[in-house]
Amino acid sequence: MDNCRFCGIANGSMDTQKPENVKIAESEKFFAISSVGALVEGWTLIVPKHHCCSMKNLYTEEEFSTFSNQLVSILTACYGPVIAFEHGPNREGSDTSCGTDHAHIHIVPYRSLMAKLDDMEMEWQTCSASQVCELVGRNEYLFYCEPGTKWDNPTGRVHVLKEPISQFFRKVIAEDLGAPDKFNYKTNPDTTLTLKTIERVRYYCAKH
Fold first, then answer.
1. Which residue of 21, 119, 121, 150 is 20 to 30 Å from 63, comparing CA positions?
2. pTM of structure
3. Angle, to 10 degrees, between the axis of helix 192-207 and the axis of helix 62-79?
4. Whole domain around residue 105: which residue ranges?
5. Element housing 126 (H / E)
6. pLDDT, tens digit, for every residue of 4-58?
7. How far is Cα of residue 166 from the mean position of the Cα atoms in its chain?
């Protein structure tokens, strides 16, 4: 799709001279890149090569599960257990997409956010990743889970949004880190941790 960074990375038309655009893992239908504006080292995105708005229809795909498990295994070997989350829009240009109108899920080496979610006045439904689509229907949503050291259709929580919300989980992590002003990747597009992640993951893969 024109002007889509992720489509450009997927098909090779994006400026691959920019180190932050390097794929750190890839399968036939998916690829992984390190997140721009990462708040912790190891922050990675799993992205479908096909342009779509959200991941909800992909969580049941065998290739997604296989690829996600491989990536989670690599990240946990480098950094320890991970959490995962998605801001799930249903249309191009929605605030929920955080300015990126191409589906992706964040895989982040970080401690549990469950207690923080419990403290919020939000309704969360417990579900497995493969149940997200049937629970949210055509609604926009937030999905959070803790795969730990492997992706095996993890159980997590989904919140159906009544109105769009931007960068929800980035705000939660930024506040937890004591740096609430750094949540916005648009105004804080630092690539220092992005490039460290790429270097470390590629080094690990080269050795294994």
1. 21
2. 0.96
3. 100
4. 5-207
5. strand 125-128
6. 889 999 988 766 668 999 999 999 999 999 999 999 999 999 999 999 999 999 9
7. 14
Instruction: Give the tokens for residue 26.
Output: 């890839």
Q: Which two tokens stand for residue 182?
A: 């750094």
Structural domain total, the chain: 1
CATH number at residue 46: 3.30.428.10
Tokens of 179: 């740096």
CA distance 52 to 71: 21
| Token pair belonging to 176 | 């937890």
